[in-house]
Specification:
Elements lengths: L4 H12 L5 E3 L6 H14 L1 E6 L7 H11 L3 E6 L2 E5 L11
Parallel strand pairs: 1-2
Antiparallel strand pairs: 2-4, 3-4
């Protein structure tokens, strides 16, 4: 599913009220992180991931990799935070 601008704007608004659930530190990206995000997306559809200063990876690379490995849509990169969305079977969030 490809999100349009209106849907991304809506999801950014929802994400702005949430705290980051996952953090990426100096260890970088791992299979445990991907599995955790996939499980979280199944239950909540929207995940916020913060990248700590100790992480040496590029933000764009992190966002693209997270999106690809979790089969999710990249909603936003803002500062050191990535917002991901993946529609679940139960449809928790009603997109416009």
């Amino acid at each position: 599913m490809k999100l349009d601008g209106k849907q991304k704007r809506f999801l950014r608004g929802l994400a702005s009220k949430e705290k980051a659930v996952f953090q990426i530190g100096k260890e970088g990206l791992s299979d445990n992180l991907y599995n955790g995000i996939r499980t979280y997306l199944d239950a909540h559809e929207l995940a916020k991931v913060s990248v700590l200063k100790s992480c040496d990876l590029d933000m764009n690379e992190i966002a693209i990799e997270l999106s690809a490995r979790t089969n999710s849509e990249l909603v936003q990169i803002i500062g050191k935070t990535v917002v991901l969305y993946r529609q679940s079977k139960d449809r928790i969030i009603d997109l416009p």
